[in-house]
Amino acid sequence: MGKQIKKWFSIAFVAIVTVVVFATNQSTPRRYPARIPVRFWHRWQGDWEKQVQKIVDAFNESQDKYEVIALSTPASGADSKFIMGVIGGDPPDVMSMWNGAIPNMADNGFLTPLETLMSPEEKKAYFNDSYPVIRDSGMYKGRVYGITIGSDLYALYVNVKQCREAGLDPDHFPTTLEELERWGDKLNQYDKNGNLTRLGFVLSSLDYIAYLFGGGFYVHPDGTYDLNTPQNLRALQRIVDERKKLGFEKVLRFNAGLKNSAGAAAWPFMTGDLSITFDGQWRVEELRKFRPDLEYRVYPVPPPAQNGKPLAGTISGNFMIVPSSAKQKEGAWEFIKFWSGLDDPNRAAKFYNLGGWLPLSPAVTNSPNFQAWLKENPQFKAFLQILASPNCKPMPAIANLQFLNDQISRAEDQAVRGTVTPKQALEELEANYKKELDRRRALGYDN
Amino acid sequence: MPRGNRDKAKQNLVGYLFISPWLIGFIAFTFWPFIRSIYLSFTRYNIVTEPKWVGLANYKMLLTQDELFYKSAWVTIKYAIVAVPLGIVAGVALALLLNINVKGMSVFRTIFYLPSIVPTVATSVVFMWLLNPNIGLVNRILAVVGVQGPAWLSTSPWAFNSLIMMALWGVGGSMVIYLAGLKDIPVHLYEAATLDGASSVKKLRYVTLPMMTPVIFFNLVMGIISAFQYFTQAFVMTPNGGPEDSTYFYSLYLYNRAWKYLDMGYASAMAWILFLVVIVLTGLVFRTQKKWVHYGG
Questions:
Q1: ipTM computed for the complex
Q2: A36-151+315-393 maps to which CATH number?
Q3: Rounded to 5 degrees, what are φ and ψ at A274?
Q4: A194 and chain B: CB distance < 8 Å anywhere?
Q5: Could you tell me if B82 and B128 lie in one domain?
Q6: What's the distance, Cα to Cα, between the start and end of chain A in Å?
């Protein structure tokens, strides 16, 4: 009898384990199994992923033909994952991708030109109504390969309380970079060993700051380029001088000891470790959510007193792409229209506000929903000012943009460390770019 | 066909059928890509479109124009020169210590072996925290003795040194092989040495180490191969090649060329150069074995 019970127990145990293993292996059941599935990959995690899911849910509820199924992929490996999907014949139907990766993918035939999915009216609206800099950031060789759903710009976040404590008036913000640096000096705090405990302000990000000096990184349609220019040299020299003044190692240690700066609720500006910091517009929404009590201001970075350009910078961010081998391009396009606001700017305004993203067009910005949100978050206006400025430029639309961006970061890093002078760093940057360009041309690429 | 031969053929067929899942996988996922990459290294290839023949262009550019190729190769060679011998010394020393007959030795062996089965990515993330210049355990301990530790992963040469230090963390894997080698040394050799009046140091020098040479040789070859393929830790801890490219390992550069810049032809050429270097080095090590590796007891 005992043996029999043991035997039955064993069989039941094996059966349960089998059921559990196979049952958990099934993917989440679809909410709308009768609809056409549209698979959407994106690069957001944490709180952002929840916001993205809200937009996906809104789309699924807005119509009864498609069901968008969202999948979050790690941001750092998203482009490789996408490429693997394309090669394996199992790509998503639509994906939000960092715009820096788009030209190379477009050049290699991975992507669908999105104007081929647009109706004549949509095409007209897209080309006439979008912010030029955002529209151009998704284009390659005159074709649209990416449409924004979350573009980013950078400006200065200013801690009001800390400024006032240091005898500075945050409502009369510096109009020149030189004055801003003096503010930074007053806001820095050190411990008894001379280590930074609070960082007032430090200049960095050559790829962005260069535009404020009247420079920037340009590759022209005829293949010529402006990389090692006097303006860029002035920008890099200023970054290096600033860092030397503070102490390279000191800033490095201070930054390394901060909490994860990418995390939504753990941004060091929120904890008071940074008094004035250069960051993206999405922080406005994060501050509203996680630190509504923190009094702050946002200002565009002031240009240098001599030969500076106000409201300058460059666009980056998330753009919707459709693989050339996508199975459900129509569904993908419907979703892109829905989110970007091409068909209904007022509805889409809410989506942009969920993540604190920059809108596609003035039509979205001027919509009642966006204006209402702006009233509650007036600090966001600084970014809209930059967005509308002619000094705000797209990144060069070249296939080897990732290489160029890597070289710009490398030049800044080496100059700041003192391994090479700013002049040598830019010379090396241009020489490396030329070498790579020559190599690519010898292999038959255009750029 | 005689019955005996028929049975043997049948037996062989059954054998191949049993290993066929592995065989098919090996041919499809290892052997074929391996052969195919020879052809790809002579092409311009982006994975999606058909490869375009460019002759020796990739190799020529790598060898004559690409500074980063030489820089990353040097970082990798430097790592192999330091980390492989260090790993052998640490592994043998640890094995000798853990070969002593004391109570609870199996617990110590387990403790030392454990790190080698922790996934590399997890280990890398833990080390990123340990080596944080402000809040990391390493600098906290150094601060107790009055030393201000460096910004380990952000300054050169400390970033490279950190990765070397981290390599010792996984020495438990080879330690187990050394332990097995130690257990294999015949006891009568030690008895004879004792009768001859050999001290412990002399026993180690003239009995233990020579008898361990086949195991050391095995670990040396495997160590060289894995050092030249070093990737994960550098990719996780210093993804952009570290400060001043000091941790821009060859495989990391190869990966970036392939997946970041979509230059599969160029990356294939890099892979083949790496393969040839590893083959040559392994061959050289094999040629030296007659002089220092002692087989048999």
A1: 0.81
A2: 3.40.190.10
A3: -120, 130
A4: no
A5: yes
A6: 80
